[in-house]
Amino acid sequence: MQALAAYACHPDASRGRVHAEPAPVGRNAFQRDRDRIIHCNAFRRLEYKTQVFLNHEGDLFRTRLTHSLEVAQIARSLARNLGVHEDLIEAIALAHDLGHTPFGHAGQDELNACMRAFAPAAGGFEHNLQSLRVVDELEERYAAFNGLNLCFETREGILKHCARRHARLLGAVGERFLNGTQASLEAQLANLADEIAYNNHDIDDGLRSGLITVQQLQRLEIFAVHYAQVRRRYPNAEQKRLVSEVIRAMINTLVLDLTHQTQARIADLRPSSVDEVRAGPPLAAFSEGIRAQADALKKFLLDNLYRHSQVIRMTAKARRIVRDLFQAFIEDPRLLADEYRREDPVAQARAIADYIAGMTDRYAIREHRAIFVMD
Ligand code: MG
Fold first, then answer.
1. Which residues contact 225 (CB under 8 A, 6 or more apart)?
2. Which domains does the chain have, with CATH numbers?
3. How far is the CA of 73 from the centre of ligand 1 (A)?
């Protein structure tokens, strides 16, 4: 492992775990967190959860699991470039989507809408908060505590966003959303690694699906520049190789730009500890030019892929499944297994949200059929 910078998180100086445990032997505290994440149930379920395309639509599309692995790969490169803790950033990246519902954002939006409609006092549903809830409460693997009992630094990184009303209930890990401070540099970088990963793989999956085309993508500066370069270099290469070379070059451009811009900010502000990172302005950032190009890319994907009629059709079906399930369980909790039944109505709504959020795409489809179809 490379030398850690003064502003990196250090496992021996961790702000600790909620439940005290002896220090690990033969690995550091962040490695232990990463290992706990890989061994948990929610991590295995990521394999059968949608990123954009339904899990069963094709074997080559990303799932939440392959997305999380790609985020971890990009995040680790960034950590090495910038001298922050590679095991910590890997743990954050692998855990960042553990709270995702089935059916991607459609599932999350509908679950949030259901919580607001049927249990307004419960405070809605948010996937970031749910990721933290999975590692803090929902996993049942250890005899002495609920959840995975991860280090503060890992939990801090998992909670990327949080509404103030939720932050107030979260103790130390919620504080930064109330006082306007930052997370560690590892957490900041993992967040941008997520963005680099999904923008690029959604282009790749979007092209593979035929819902977007290379011609459309040429309107984007970041794509057009690399496409022209790759074509000049490999004039006879077939299209799929060109596309993969372009995506490779775009990821590389984004990673290097983020590295250089962040290095410049570090040189400027000279943080000498992670607490100084937390107290200062955000450190991890793209340059203005690349930020604008990445935003244009995001907007392109929103307009042309996420709002494509075929994706909307899938989304509408997915929302209906989540809504039907939620409503059925609220109206008749006897449909639920004992472990998800609660006396208090707010707690009941939350338990239903936990149950649905934990479902894979295919489990949700099966459960919907089991409840609504007599066969
Ligand atoms: Mg993600």
1. none
2. 26-217 (1.10.3210.10)
3. 13
Ligand 1 center from residue 2 Cα (angstroms): 26
Ligand 1 center from residue 54 Cα (angstroms): 16
Distance CA(50)–CA(66), nearest Å, equals 10
Positions of the chain with pLDDT lower than 70, given as ranges: 1-2, 54-60
Give pLDDT, residue 128.
93
pTM of the entire structure?
Answer: 0.96
C-alpha span between 95 and 112 (Å, rounded):
21
- The CA 70 to ligand 1 mean position distance, Å, reads 10
Sequence-ordered list of residues with C-beta below 8 angstroms from that of 276, at least 6 positions apart, any chain: 7, 269
Q: Could you list the beta-strand ranges (E) of the chain.
A: none
Tokens at residue 276, please? 């100084």
- CB neighbours of residue 35 within 10 Å: 15
Residue 149 falls in which region: left (phi positive, over 0), alpha (psi -120 to 50) or beta:
left
Task: Classify residue 220 by its DSSP letter.
Answer: S
SS3 214: helix
What Å distances lie between residue 67 and 47, 155, 196, CA to CA?
10, 20, 11
Residues 6+ apart with CB under 8 A from 68: 46, 93, 94, 96, 97
Enumerate residues 6+ apart whose C-beta is below 8 A from 201. Answer: 51, 62, 67, 70, 247
Distance CA 365, CA 166 (A): 31
